[in-house]
Design goal:
Blueprint lengths: L6 E8 L22 H6 L4 H4 L4 E9 L6 H15 L4 E7 L5 H11 L5 E5 L12 H13 L5 E6 L2 E4 L4 E2 L8 E2 L7 E4 L2 E4 L12 H9 L6 E5 L7 H9 L3 E6 L7 H12 L3 E6 L22 H15 L1
Parallel strand pairs: 1-2, 1-3, 3-4, 4-5, 11-12, 12-13
Antiparallel strand pairs: 5-6, 6-9, 7-8, 9-10
Helix pairs in contact: 4-9, 6-9, 7-8
The structure holds aspartic acid.
Amino acid sequence: MQVSGKKIVVLGTGGTIAGTSAQAGDNIGYTAAQVGVAQLLAAVPGLQALAGGALVAEQVAQIDSKDMDDGVWRALALRCRQHLNDPEVRGLVITHGTDTLEETAWFLQEMLEAHKPVVLTCAMRPATALTPDGPQNLLDAVAVVQAPGAAGVMVVAAGEVHGARYVQKAHPYRVHAFHSGDAGPLGWVEEGRVRLAQNWPLPQDVYDLVAIEKIVSATDWPWVEVVVSHAGATSRGVDALVRDGVQGLVVACTGNGTIHHALEAALLRAQNAGVRVVRSTRCPEGQVLPKPGDVFPDSQGLSPVKARVALVLDLLRAG
Ligand code: ASP
């Protein structure tokens, strides 16, 4: 779709960017998701002017993103889709907590035909911090939406632009908390200017419309868990999950997709019983390289948490 409009819709979902603490110097003892998105935007000097007065705020949720769930994802996908189809809209910014940001980014990447930019942003310091990072991240996110040619689902934080596929939270405290591993950032935002290291992400294949309708209208999403292979792993956890009716398992494997023999035996039983099993790696960089004779498919480079999102969506589509 041709970008003609200039409206930038900012969808608020909560997170530390909207968090407050009783003491300004407290960067960890705060409560996330307290400040409304309209108030967040109003507090950033020059933001509305940067957007040519065309910023519109909409609160979709107000949660700590550690508690993200399928209900919020469904609501967010529907709101994004509606705004992206509006010719007046140039692009979207989504304010979000950092904890599950990469999962929401991947979910939206799979769900939206994002020929316009959809930029998730966040903060590592609450709005009441002595030096909050949210305001600059918001300015940078708007700059990315306005950059010529920008399209696709991205994450903007700490002056970097990341694509949805590889971005992950890599540090629990530092302001510079995100990286894209081997792939590196797509670019940087410097004084309101975007400097690209790579091309803008190409619009990628998303599910067809029928599948997307099915996904957003299903209220009962499949149960998919992530299990980790580690020294001393056993079969008990997986056997219990299968008894309880789990429908999919993503394995955060050691190294190149290897699995402790005790866990592997349970996973084979699970697969034979009809549970979908997918291997990812617990290594923070690189991806599982498949080889002939593999008994479990690999996640095609997706991290364990993103592979979980992909498997949920696949099961929904197939269901
Ligand atoms: N727990 C917060 C959240 O994910 C952390 C953050 O936003 O930095 O909502």
